[in-house]
# Entry
Amino acid sequence: MKEPAYRSSERGKKELRRLSRIAHERALRVALEKLEAKFSLWHSGKLDTFALNDAIHEYHQNDQRELWSLYQPSMASAAVARAVAEGLLKESELSPRLLADLVQSIAYFRET
# Structure
């Protein structure tokens, strides 16, 4: 199935790249804040060194890898739609044309 014209246009691709980068940074920030909380527990003595090491390993093996795979350049349309559905991006951050192109994808990710 061919993508709608706007997403395939240079302007649309540029917008998708920009928004995908913003969403990636926001998702990464959320994941790193969770890891930072583990460091805070470790600093306060509420988490031992081995548990912190396990948390770092889990972040690297799960969160970081998932984010890396979600935000591949070839997946920008899906990444942006998913980011809107999850609240990482607001619909108002998308141009009206891009929002119109992604409305069905956004609805799909909201349902799943």
